Amino acid sequence: MDGQNLTKVVLLACGSFNPITNMHLRMFELARDHLEDTGQYRVMKGIISPVGDAYKKKGLIEARHRLEMARLSTDSSDWITFDPWESLQPEWVETAKVVRHYYKEMLEAEQNTDDVDTVKHAKKRRIEENRFGGSSHHKKDGLQLMLLCGADVLESFGVPNLWKQEDIVEIVGRYGLVCVTRSGSDPHKFIHQSDMLWKYRQNIHVVCEWVTNEISATQVRRSLRRGRSVRYLLPDSVVHYIQEHGLYSTESEQKNAGVVLAPLQRSQEEKKVIKMPASLCDTWDIISNVNLDGYMTALGISPCLRKIALKVKMKKVIEQQGDQYTIKTTSKVKNYTISFRVGQEFEEFTKGLDNRHVKSLVTWEGNKLVCEQIGEKNNRGWAHWIEEDKLHLELYCEGEVCKQIFKKNANE
Amino acid sequence: MACHRVPLVLLACGSFNPITNQHMRLFELARDHMHSTGQYQVVGGIVSPVGDGYGKQGLVLAQHRSAMAKLALQSSDWVTVDEWESQQADWTETVVTMRYHYGRILKEYEQSTGKHKHSIGNTSPLSSPYPQLKLLCGADFLNTFQIPGLWLDDHVEEVAGHFGLICVSRGGLHPERAVAMSDTLSRHSQNIFLVREWVRNETSATKVRQALRQGLSVKYLIPDSVIEYIHQHNLYTEESERRNKGTVLRPLAKLAQQPMQSLDD
C-alpha cells in the first residue's frame, strides 16, 4: 500500500494523569493498532494533555509534577508525546476548546515544517517522516484529530451539567472519538441509548482491550499512601520521581476536598444557579426499578430471595449530620442501614443482602454521592444523586447496573 | 522487632514464556503482604523458568526464556533468575526445585552465621531465625492441585506443609475455594498465604504471544528490553506456537509410567 488514501490521525488524551499509569499508555497502543487495522488510518502521533490545577479535582497534585511524570513516561515511546499547553492555562479549559487548540496546531504544523511542539529531536523527526512520507499532497480532510478516552469518559457525557451538549456535538461530530473499553462497560449500548451519539456513531471508534488492565490512578495513589509497591503499574522512572519528591500522601489527597469541580462550577455560573446542589436528605419512595434482578444475580443472591426482593416496595431515608450520612433502606421484608463519613473508608457488612464484607469509600463526584465497594465482587458500588426533584440511584456489580428512581414521600 | 523476623525467600516456578509485568507484580504484592504480617522479612525472590522437557505447547527454548527474565529483572534489586531448574536433563517436580534452592539458601545462611542446624547446644537467643523458602504462585496455580495426576500427594504435602505457599489472587478466581477443596491444602491452611490484588491486571503470557503473532503492540505489558529481545530473535511465531503440539505434559507422562498402586488398594 502506498498510503495515499490513508487518513492521518493524531490521538489526543485529556485527563488528570494523577499520576500517569501504564494503562494510559496502553490505551494509545491499543487505539493505534485498532485504527491502523481498519486500513483507513495512519496514526502519526499521540498527545498527552494533563488538565490544569484549576480543574479542582480532589487529590489533584500540581501540574508541574504531573507534566514531568508524563514526560518521563513518554521518553521510551517513539510516537507518544506530552503537551503542557492545557495545564498552563490559568483557568480550566473545556475539553472541546483543548481539542480545537490542538487541531489548529496540527493544521499549522502541517503547513509549516517548523513544528512548535516539544517533541524531542529524534521523536520529532520520526513523527515528521510519518507525516510527510509517501504522499505528495496534504489535503486538509486527510488529517484528523481524535480524542482518545476510556469508556468512563464516554459515559460521563450522560452526567448532568458536566458537559455542554454543544461541546459533545463538536467533539464527536467534528473531530471524532476513540473509546477504549474496560470490562464491565458496554460503550455500544451507551451509544445506542443516546440519540446524539447514535447520530455520530461513525465517528466513534470502540476499541476492545484484549487483556484486562484496570490500573486506575486512584488505586495507585491509594497504594502509595499506604506504602505499598506500585512497581510495574507505572513506568520505573515515574515510580522514582514519585519517591524522590514524596508525592501522594494523605495530605495531598485532601487537596480540593469539598471543592466543586470546575466544569460543574462553570455550568452553575452559566445557568445563574444560586442554589446549592439539591439535598439528598429526605424520605423517598421507589417509583422505578430497572435490572434489580441482574444486579442481584451478579451478587450471587439466590433465585428465591431475588423473587421476594423484586416484589417489595422500597423506601429510603437519608439523613445527614456534617459529613456523616445515614442511609436507611426499608421494606416489608428487610431493612438495611449504612452510616459513613464522606471520604473515609469503612468496613461494610452487607448483612441480609449478600452477606459479604467489603471496604467502602463514599465520595462526592460532582453532584453524585458515589460509593466504591471493594471486595470479592468487581466494579461494585453505587451512586446517589438528585435530578428534577427525584432521587436517582445506580447500583453496580460486575458490569450489571440497576437503576432506581425515588420520589419524595408525600407524608413527610 | 525486625531482627526476629523470619528471613524469607520467594520462589516462582513457571513457563515465563515470556515473562510479563504481571509476573513481576506478583513478587511486589507478595513482599508487601508478607511484610505486613509482621513475621517475615523478604530477603530475595527467585524466578525459575521450567525446563524444555516440560512439553507445553508453544514453549520456546529455556535459553531464551531465561534471557528475557534476566533482562526484565535487571532493574529489580531483589528478584533474580535461576537457571538450575531449566538446566536439568528432564523436567523436575516443583518440590525438587524447592529442595534444591532451600538447600542452597540454608548452606549460605550457615556459612554466614557459622551456625549449624544439627549442632548440639543452644544458639544465641538474639541470633536471627532460620530462613524459609515459600512458593509464590497465582490463584490459577492452586487449581492445578485439583487436576488428577498432576501432583503427587506427598509433594503437595511437602510444598504446602514443609515450605508454604503464597498465592496472589486476581479477578474472579477464588483461592479460598481451591484450598477448601483439597484435604492436604486445608490441613496446612496456616501455611498458605492468600494475597488479594485489587488492581485487575490479567496479562497472560498466552495472550501476549497471541498478540505478538498478530503483530499487535505489547508495549507496557512486558518490559521494552524483552520486546526488543523477542524481535531480535524472532521468537513467538506461528511455527513456535506449534512446538510440542500434541505432546503429553511431562508430569502426566511421568505419572503414567509409574505403577498404579492406588488401584490395588
Commentary on this structure:
- The complex is a heterodimer of chains A (412) and B (265).
- Chain A is 34% helix and 27% strand.
- Chain A has 412 residues and is α/β, with parallel strands linked by helices.
- In chain A, α4 runs parallel beside α7 (165-175) and α14 (292-299) runs antiparallel to α15 (303-311).
- The longest helix of chain A is centred in the N-terminal third of the chain and has 17 residues, at 95-111.
- Chain A is globular, with a radius of gyration of 23 Å.
- Chain B is α/β, with parallel strands linked by helices and 265 residues long.
- Helix content of chain B is 43%, strand content 15%.
- Chain B contains 13 helices and six strands.
- A six-stranded parallel beta sheet of chain B has the order 3-2-1-4-5-6.
- In chain B, β2 (40-49), α2 (62-73) and β3 (79-81) form a beta-alpha-beta unit.
- Chain B is globular, with a radius of gyration of 19 Å.
- The interface between A and B is medium-sized, with 28 and 28 residues.
- Chain B: Belongs to the eukaryotic NMN adenylyltransferase family.
- Chain B: Pathway: Cofactor biosynthesis; NAD(+) biosynthesis; deamido-NAD(+) from nicotinate D-ribonucleotide: step 1/1; Cofactor biosynthesis; NAD(+) biosynthesis; NAD(+) from nicotinamide D-ribonucleotide: step 1/1.
- Chain B: One of its GO terms (cellular component) is mitochondrion.
- Chain B: Keywords: ATP-binding, Magnesium, NAD, Nucleotide-binding, Nucleotidyltransferase, Nucleus, Phosphoprotein, Pyridine nucleotide biosynthesis, Transferase, Zinc.
- Chain B: It is found in: Nucleus.
Task: Give the oligomeric state.
Answer: heterodimer
The total strand number of chain A stands at 16
Unreliable runs of chain A: 114-118, 131-140, 272-276
| Helix count, DSSP H or I runs of 4 or more residues of chain B | 13
Gross morphology of chain A: globular
| Distance from first to last alpha carbon of chain A | 71 Å
What gyration radius of chain B follows from the Cα positions, in whole Å?
19 Å
Q: Quick check: average pLDDT of chain B?
A: 87
* Distinct helical segment count of chain A: 15
The biggest beta sheet of chain B, please?
6 strands, parallel
* H and E order of chain B: EHEHEHHEHHEHHEHHHHH
Instruction: State the helical fraction of chain A.
Output: 25-40%
Q: How large is the radius of gyration of chain A?
A: 23 Å
Terminus-to-terminus distance of chain B: 51 Å
Order of strands across the main sheet of chain A: 10-9-8-7-16-15-14-13-12-11
Strand composition percent of chain A: 25-35%
Going by helix content, strand content and strand pairing, the class of chain A is: alpha/beta
